[in-house]
């Protein structure tokens, strides 16, 4: 392609060659931005399908879409600058600096990012859903942390341990913890028997 453009450039008159030198980079930059935009549309459509199939929460898919958008558009910007004639050394310095900052931020926020990823896995693998009664086991023969799932956010899963949301106790467990230990899940009538009693029942029975 470059050889064809160079051959065309050599055959054109000077005024036309100058316009070609301007139009070709502009066309290339426009094409790069168009490809980035189309790629983001494909990613957005794919996320919509995943959201509908696995019932992913909107805030999780929104964060994932933003991260992908930053990567795609940052790459498109660097590529466009290279097409406009910016020095490769300058671009490489900018890229390595950006990568270094990104790596430091990644390791600093590793625990948060791992929980975000585990949130996606919880929904995609259908490990449990809001309303399920689950128990996180230390070992197979010892009781663990048990309760009804009342909330799954980007970092924590909240289990209602006793009572209700106003009068009772709850556990907030990091989402990554559910992929490090055995998980027991009750179904149907068994789940109802294992569900935490309403507030005041234990005190009444004890009295």
UniProtKB/TrEMBL annotation:
Domain of life: Bacteria
UniProt keyword Metal-binding present: no
Name of a matching Pfam family: MS_channel_2nd
Membrane topology: Multi-pass membrane protein
Record-annotated Mechanosensitive ion channel MscS domain positions: 112-181
Free-text function comment from the UniProt entry: Mechanosensitive channel that participates in the regulation of osmotic pressure changes within the cell, opening in response to stretch forces in the membrane lipid bilayer, without the need for other proteins. Contributes to normal resistance to hypoosmotic shock. Forms an ion channel of 1.0 nanosiemens conductance with a slight preference for anions.
Subunit annotation: Homoheptamer.
Name of the protein described by the UniProt record: Small-conductance mechanosensitive channel
Protein species of origin: Pelomonas dachongensis
Organism ancestry: Bacteria, Pseudomonadati, Pseudomonadota, Betaproteobacteria, Burkholderiales
């Amino acid at each position: 392609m470059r050889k064809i453009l160079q051959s065309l450039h050599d055959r054109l008159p000077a005024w036309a060659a100058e316009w070609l030198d301007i139009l070709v980079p502009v066309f290339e930059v426009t094409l790069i931005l168009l490809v980035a935009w189309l790629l983001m549309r494909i990613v957005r459509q794919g996320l919509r399908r995943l959201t509908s199939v696995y019932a992913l929460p909107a805030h999780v898919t929104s964060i994932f879409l933003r991260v992908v958008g930053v990567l795609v558009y940052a790459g498109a910007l660097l590529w466009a600058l290279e097409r406009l004639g910016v020095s490769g050394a300058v671009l490489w310095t900018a890229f390595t600096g950006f990568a270094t900052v990104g790596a430091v931020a990644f390791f600093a926020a590793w625990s948060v990012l791992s929980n975000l990823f585990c949130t996606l896995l919880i929904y995609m693998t259908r490990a449990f859903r809001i309303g399920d009664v689950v128990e996180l086991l230390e070992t197979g023969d010892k009781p663990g942390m048990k309760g009804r799932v009342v909330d799954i956010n980007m970092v924590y899963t909240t289990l209602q341990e006793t009572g209700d949301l106003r009068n009772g106790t709850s556990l907030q467990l990091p989402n990554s913890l559910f992929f490090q230990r055995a998980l027991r899940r009750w179904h149907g009538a068994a789940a109802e028997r294992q569900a935490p009693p309403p507030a005041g029942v234990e005190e009444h029975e004890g009295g």
